Model the fold of this input.
Amino acid sequence: MEPTTDLMGALSTWLPLLAPIVVLQVALQVIAIVDLVRREKVRGGNKWVWGAVIVLGEIIGPLVYFVAGREE
Done:
């Protein structure tokens, strides 16, 4: 069997499972970044650090921001 056929088989198997996770990750990141930009204050006072946590933290980063970063 050719390597290309194996790759296509793996993609067709995993893509339907991974697509919702990727969509969830991107949606959480966009919502968190928009919230961060609109807020005047965040915990720790540094929006750049929270932006890095959101973007580099994949799914966990936005959740950490929503739980610990927002200052009411």
